[in-house]
Structures are given as C-alpha cells and as structure tokens.
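Q: what sequence does this backbone want?
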C-alpha cells in the first residue's frame, strides 16, 4: 500500500498520501513522532520502490476518486519516514506530473536540504513544507534525535538556499514541545530564522496524536499564544495547527486495507475509524481482528482513543 486516502489535511484539504519510504527509515527520531519508534535512523538515500508501482497506485486512487466524486486537492509525499531519503523522489515527481495536473506536495524534515541534488529534485514540487522546530543544536538533538551524521548548521544553510531557489509555495512548520522549544528566546530565534526563509505560511503545530515519547507534549495555551504573537511580529503569515482535521477519510470498500494504509502514517481517532467502517458497510469486528493479528494498536491520548499501525521490527 504505497498510497493512502484521500485523507483530510489541515494544510492541504483533501490529500492523497504517497508512502515512498518503508516503516520506519528516517533521519530523525522526533519525540513527538506519531508513527512511533524509529526502526532505522540514517541519512543514506536508497531506492525503495519501483516508480512504476507508485504511479500505478496513484492512477488507481485518482480513478476511484473521480468515479466516487471525491476531490483530491494534493498528491502528498508524507511517508513512514523522511521522503527525501528516497533516491527516486525526483523521478517520481516528474513522472506523476505526466499523468495528472493535481499539484504535488512534499512534507520534509529539512535534514537533507544541504544536498544540492535533493533541493533540485524538490524544485519540481508545487508545495513544500520544511521543518524548523529549532535552530539551537542542543534543543535540536533533544527534540529531533537526529542521525549523528547530520549537522544543523549545514541544514540551516541548505534550507535558506532552498527557500531562495524554490518557485512553488513554501511552508514552514514548527512543532511546539513543552519545556523544550517554547521559551521566549527560542521562539524569537526561530522566528528570526523563518523570516529569512520568507515562507508563504509559517505553521505552528502541537502534538495532537500519541507521541513516540512521553516527553513530546504540547505547551500550555498561554505559551502557544505567545509563540503566535512572536512569530506574527516577524513573519507575514502565521497559522496554528491546533485542532482535529476531521473524519472525511476516503473509503475503498476494503476496510482492512483502508485502516492499515492510513494508520501506517496517520493515527486515526476512534470516531474516524467508526465513520470509515460505516462507509465501507463494515463493523467493529474488523478492528478487533486487526488488533488480534497484531497489526493494529490502540492508544489513549488525552480525551481520545487512537488506532495506529504496529511497526514490525527487523529481525536481528
């Protein structure tokens, strides 16, 4: 399942996700990651899936959406790990553009933007979000737990270069974590750096789904308000991502596939799972069976119950 959705997105409307990285290969292991523990942390770019396979799944999803009358606003690279670790992402974007005029989005943690080749490949996208949780190395290591091969100063310079070169819509995202990157000084430093990127929108987010570590908690409401005011004083357009995106998940008729494909990269609230089952004319036994098969995990977070795909560790 290399695609999932379309799913509701707080930034992109109706987004068809492209899962071009297997679980879970990433250059970071963020404390707030909604997918869970990183199975492999690295920076080596690899070829994971055949481009033709990804294209075929995208075609099928577009055809199904057109027949069912469900609009797709963006085709979004938002996989189980960092999307730019895929050696073929440039080719994939290029080939997708040959079969559809639906705009392409990439959500990246910015860790490989020091690489000119990566920046050039992302130039083909229409919408790119770059992560800026902090520009302080000590805090960066505390929040993002990066690969030891990465250097934050290189990443910052690469992000600045990409912002200068990119002709599409550029977004930034800062995940606010309690007692880590929410101090006044840190927020001011972040805002100064993001202002240099001159993004179309700077998003301030908080963890709304179960985090990988218990330390990945949102700050208090008054701290979020200070963050918004600090960013707004220096950046033209600032938005917060604080709420739930809704339950408008696309149904294919196969509840097991729908649930597993979405929860692999996007934990679902219980009410969203219930709505999806109803669309597929299925019942809760599907969820119970997936849990019994050790494919799905139930997690309580705040006031809600979430379901996420269980990641299988590689054999030693």
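A:
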């Amino acid at each position: 399942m290399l695609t999932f959705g379309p799913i509701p997105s707080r930034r992109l409307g109706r987004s068809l996700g492209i899962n071009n990285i297997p679980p879970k290969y990433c250059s970071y292991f963020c404390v707030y990651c909604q997918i869970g523990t990183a199975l492999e942390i690295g920076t080596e770019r690899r070829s994971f899936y055949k481009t033709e396979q990804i294209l075929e799944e995208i075609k099928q999803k577009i055809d199904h959406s057109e027949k069912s009358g469900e609009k797709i606003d963006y085709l979004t690279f938002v996989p189980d790990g960092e999307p730019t670790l895929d050696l073929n992402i440039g080719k994939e974007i290029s080939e997708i553009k040959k079969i559809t005029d639906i705009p392409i989005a990439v959500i990246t943690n910015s860790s490989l933007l020091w690489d000119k080749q990566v920046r050039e490949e992302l130039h083909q996208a229409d919408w790119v979000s770059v992560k800026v949780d902090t520009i302080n190395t000590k805090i960066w290591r505390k929040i993002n737990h990066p690969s030891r091969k990465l250097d934050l100063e290189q990443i910052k310079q690469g992000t600045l270069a990409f912002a200068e070169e990119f002709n599409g819509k550029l977004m930034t995202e800062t995940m606010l974590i309690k007692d880590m990157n929410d101090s006044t000084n840190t927020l001011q430093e972040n805002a100064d750096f993001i202002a240099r990127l001159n993004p179309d929108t700077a998003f301030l987010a908080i963890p709304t789904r179960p985090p990988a570590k218990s330390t990945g908690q949102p700050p208090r409401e008054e701290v979020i308000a200070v963050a918004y005011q600090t960013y707004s004083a220096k950046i033209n357009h600032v938005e917060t991502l604080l709420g739930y995106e809704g339950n408008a998940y696309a149904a294919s008729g196969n509840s097991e596939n729908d649930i597993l494909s979405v929860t692999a990269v996007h934990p679902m609230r219980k009410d969203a799972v219930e709505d999806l089952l109803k669309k597929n004319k299925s019942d809760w036994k599907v969820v119970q069976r997936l849990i019994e098969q050790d494919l799905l995990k139930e997690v309580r977070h705040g006031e809600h119950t979430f379901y996420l795909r269980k990641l299988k560790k590689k054999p030693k």
